[in-house]
Specification:
The chain is mostly beta strands. It is about 15% helix and about 55% strand.
């Protein structure tokens, strides 16, 4: 039977720097307030192989203006006291500004509250009564307002009621009230007018309101109380003794079931927060909230990797300068790579940017004779396309000298000027021929 026998052994390097950890910064749970800002203690630690050892630490600004009051910087106008200026009424208007929860006065002015408030028109008013014979007169007074009081202008006695005072007239009068049992009685008095005054004839107690002092037992509501998730309300049974309500008994009544339980109670949801850069990556704050009777409370949060290598630009192609090769236009194409602070060229080449961009160069023909057939054909074409030269001039004047078609316009204007010169010569020759023919005839 074959067996394996040990020959030798040695320690092989399996993984380099496996137990090494780089020194790093750690946040602590120690906070500190300096002025209106919040600071947090941060510690720099190094790894010894078994544990993290503190090297140094300092207080770092964690949240700026964290302790700023929520109403800081707000403004509000307030109304103040009243004041009279002339016949108008003014009211003090004051502007306040909030400084860390305290309202400070900024400025104030007198605002026109009611125009003509202290002006009153002259008016008639009633005065005292007076008897003249059997009739009743009443004084009529006209007063005007001085700004502080009413001053009488004039007055007179006006007939107010004719035959008001008649001797021997009877009348019923109401007197005081009285309680008899649970009913309300009132004294009824018959009087007769006799020699200027009313004299008593007879009186009796009249039933004014039945069961006025009787009130049935009544249940009153008291304060509320929470028992579990339900709302209870105190119910009190009282009876009326004629003067006040006396408590018979009281108990807690279930007023509203599940009053303190919100429909979203117990639900949880994740929400996105702000962004943060860690190294070359982009992180976003992810927070878990839980609903407690309609209010969302924060449970925990962490930084979620939003986009990897967000702050490392990718290799990019750039355009460079131009170059002419033959009749074509080429442009330099450059591939660059971002290395820390600047772009480094990786490779470049000449890219065909526009084919046949430059016109072909033709040799200039020699000047032909005036009577050759080619010039005659050219003159015939110019007569035929006389209107097109006008259109060409209009087109070139609109495009300008530095337009896209400057070379084409230059060539067209040269042809049109040449055609005009030839046209003039040809028309002169034709005139001469006509004159010779006339003379021969």
């Amino acid at each position: 039977m074959k067996q394996w026998r040990r020959v030798r052994s040695y320690w092989h390097l399996w993984r380099r720097n496996h137990y090494y950890k780089r020194s790093r910064w750690f946040w602590t749970n120690s906070y500190k307030r300096v002025g209106r800002h919040q600071y947090r203690y941060i510690v720099f630690r190094r790894w010894t192989g078994a544990r993290w050892v503190r090297v140094r630490g300092y207080w770092r600004l964690y949240r700026r203006n964290a302790y700023n009051h929520r109403y800081h910087g707000r403004q509000q106008w307030r109304w103040g006291r009243f004041r009279r200026i002339g016949i108008h009424r003014y009211r003090l208007r004051t502007l306040y500004r909030n400084y860390q929860g305290h309202w400070r006065r900024v400025r104030s002015y007198w605002h026109l509250w009611k125009r003509g408030h202290y002006y009153r028109k002259p008016r008639w008013s009633w005065g005292a009564y007076r008897r003249v014979g059997h009739h009743l007169y009443r004084q009529r007074v006209l007063r005007r307002w001085t700004g502080a009081r009413w001053v009488v202008v004039r007055r007179y006695w006006k007939l107010y009621r004719r035959y008001h005072y008649l001797h021997g007239k009877y009348r019923w009068f109401w007197g005081k009230f009285k309680r008899i049992g649970v009913h309300l009685y009132r004294r009824r008095i018959l009087r007769r007018f006799w020699h200027g005054r009313w004299r008593h004839v007879r009186s009796y107690w009249h039933l004014y309101r039945r069961n006025h002092y009787y009130k049935p037992n009544r249940v009153f509501y008291g304060r509320t109380r929470r028992v579990g998730r339900h709302l209870y309300r105190l119910r009190i049974l009282k009876r009326w003794n004629g003067k006040r309500w006396i408590v018979i008994r009281r108990w807690w009544h279930l007023y509203r079931r599940n009053y303190y339980r919100h429909p979203h109670h117990g639900r949880t949801r994740w929400t996105w927060g702000r962004y943060r850069r860690i190294g070359h990556h982009l992180y976003r704050l992810r927070t878990l909230y839980r609903n407690h009777n309609g209010r969302w409370r924060r449970v925990r949060a962490y930084w979620h990797l939003w986009r990897r290598n967000h702050y490392v630009p990718r290799p990019r192609w750039f355009w460079g300068r131009y170059r002419r090769i033959g009749r074509h236009l080429y442009r330099l194409r450059i591939l660059k790579v971002y290395k820390g602070k600047r772009w480094i060229v990786r490779r470049q080449y000449w890219h065909l940017y526009r084919r046949n961009h430059y016109p072909a160069m033709k040799p200039k023909p020699s000047k032909p004779c005036r009577c050759c057939s080619s010039v005659k054909n050219f003159v015939i074409r110019l007569f035929r396309y006389k209107k097109k030269c006008a259109r060409a001039r209009h087109f070139c004047s609109r495009m300008g000298r530095r337009g896209k078609y400057r070379n084409v316009c230059r060539h067209m204007m040269h042809l049109c000027s040449r055609a005009q010169r030839v046209r003039r010569r040809r028309s002169a020759q034709l005139r001469r021929l006509r004159m010779l023919r006339r003379r021969r005839r």
